[in-house]
Please model this.
Amino acid sequence: MLLFLLKRILWTIPTLFGVSVLVFSMVHLVPGDPALVILGEHANKEALEALREQMGLNKPLLEQYLSYINHILHGDLGTSLVSGESVLEAFLQRFPATLELSLSALFIALIVGLATGILAAIKRYSLFDNLSMGFALAGVSMPVFWLGLMLIYFFSVKLGWFPVFGRLNDAYYLDGPTGFYLIDSLIAGNLPAFFDALRHLVLPSIALATIPTAIIARMTRASMLEVLQEDYVRTAQAKGCPPWRVILIHTLRNALIPVTTVVGLMLAGLLAGSILTETTFSWPGVGRWMVNALNQRDFPIIQSSSLIVAVIFVGANLVVDILYAFINPQIRLS
Amino acid sequence: MRSLTLFCLSCLCLWAKEGGTLIYARGADGSGMDPALVVDGESYAATSNIYETLVRFKYGSTEIEPALASSWEISKDGLTYTFHLRHGVYFQTTRYWDEKSELTAKDVLFSFERQTGKVPYYKGAKSYGYWASMGMSSIIKKIEALDKYTVRFTLKHPEAPFLADLGMDFLSVLCADYAAHLKDLNKEDELTRKPIGTGPFKLATWFRDDKIVLLKNNDYWGPKAHLDRVVLRVIPNPSVRALALQRGEVSIISAPNRNEIPRLASLPGIAVDEKPGLFVTWMSLNLEKKPFDNRLVRLAINHAINTQDYVKIVYENYATPAINPMPPSMWGYNKDIKPYGYDLKVAKELLAKAGYSNGFETTLFTASKYNKQAAEFIQAQLAKIGIQVRIEFFEWGTYLKKVAMGEHKMAFSGWKADTPDPDNFLYILWSKEAAAEIPTRNGSFYKSDAYSRLVTKAKYLSSQAKRATLYQKAQEVFHNDAPWVPLAYPYSIVARLKSVQGYQVSGVQINRFAHVYFSK
Model:
């Protein structure tokens, strides 16, 4: 087991190296002059030259890459060219917003997805099964920004149930230790702020949860159906086990194994993929920050945030693999 | 008794204007709060309320008025500018700076000299992009404090737009004591996050990419702001901005989607303000590439493009057709110049006279962020006189670079004034000096001696009337040479709650909120 773990961890090094090369070259191979983009049409020669010098763009590519890697290995992710803030600090500042949103979305996806999948499997080919699987297909195919706009239009503008944008109403001020507004408001004992933060969280979480919900529902259904065919389930039924016990204990526990492994990766996907949701709902998280950086060609942010996302993915993969190896010993032997 | 009632009523009216929180929703956050370091307009929405300059532009217009300098003298040779600072102006006190510091000449010196490089500030080298772009180092020879309240600028050569330049945000006056305090703490970078100015609002909080909260500065030296608070909110999606306004969750939104404007305007509590901004868009014709070196070809193209239709299709009528290379609201605009007019017959004749009776093939560069329709419109219009246009799309950065290097034959361009002086359009964009610089801002590579002589001479004169005459003549020369196709003067558009009053959509620095109030 230890050898497996070590091998698995060592494998992440070339992966991350590859990612760093890719991220670095992607930004540098795109044509156009970042200095010109930052300074805009108002730029003159002198200003452009000064900025290029400051950005180190006049140095050879290899030298730029080595200096980039050197800084990263020393824990320095660089400073934003546009705002001058430390990239790591800026990331950590925005990360709680994205994590709060992603965890809420995952929570919704798990509850709704699992329940729908289980029910659809039990009532196979029923109206519920057909309808829910139809919705699941629609959920996977729906563009998130469109769904977001529709949610805002109906639930915020027409019905007035939820706010249109943001994380918290201006009437409240939270400067808590965690950066999670739900937790910070509770720590501060500010219940109105808690409910306000919750109301702000509902629509973006639903929008972000749509695709994972659909995936979990479909996977759970398929997996349940497979397990329901197994001999031990039939044996349990034959032994006169009550149906709820057959479903929850005998079937679900086994059916959930493949689903569990996907959930870890799903969270990583949610963290990285909240770009559209954050932009639609004006959610001040990492996704929107990355989009801004791309528009402004803020190289250090683009490079480092992509690298961080890659690390999250690789990390999640690693954790999932290790967990899987624990659940299924055959994996580590092979 | 009657006068007492009137007095009470007027007090009530005055009182009615006071207070409230204005929530201004825009597409992106600013990048920093040191006005000398930033180059994006969104940053100035916050800083031009916090900081002030020696002179400023009257709100909603292009007129210069005193600000931190109560008066000034300009020497006859136009080389020295002496400014008398207002007495009793104090920098703001906030939770991060509670020292009451009076504005004096040393603050002005600090604010300018760090940009000249004389007084180094910030640990890492920072690029004072705006200072460099405006060529300030080649204008200013020296800056000196004559006494506590008097500052003198000596210029290297006469430069008439200099006074207007001093009203630009990047020349805001910062507090030297506060900057020194940060330097002592080895926290110079905080100057870009925690501003201390003399303006009508001060910073309360800034959650990046989310909101900036400004509070009324109750110790402001001039007429105090009406609003208690201004919240600058970031809502990237324009449709969501419109929905938030519809719900009354925000008070003003910038840049609404043009196709949503009629719906917004029809809602009972909402008003849409639209006015031509200080903005021109055009198509550059590269005079260094054949056949655009031929004036007749350029005239033919000007006659072949229906700018009325262009404005209707591309701007959905939220613009007026352009005529001159600066907007009509700028002083010195030549009203007598008439557009060439849409006439295909004349266009074909001109083309035949130029030796292209069968037309020719050419390319039009455009950026993917521009309206695709605009390029297709030009393509269709020119096809009618036999000119076959191939449209080439580029990513924004590539586009800027290619046009600045002169790789294009035809390309879209636009310019928004950041200082209300014709020089900012006529010299900076179209002089032969601008064409000589690579990368250039003169996308047509227009190098007329006659034109350049006029706009350069206007730079050195201090009389605005004489300058205006020169600029009007320059516009005639320009119109005659037609190095471009004027397209549009786009409108500046905001949608607001009807109760929001006093916000101006035209002029420079429109996001100064001291004049804005809520009608009760």
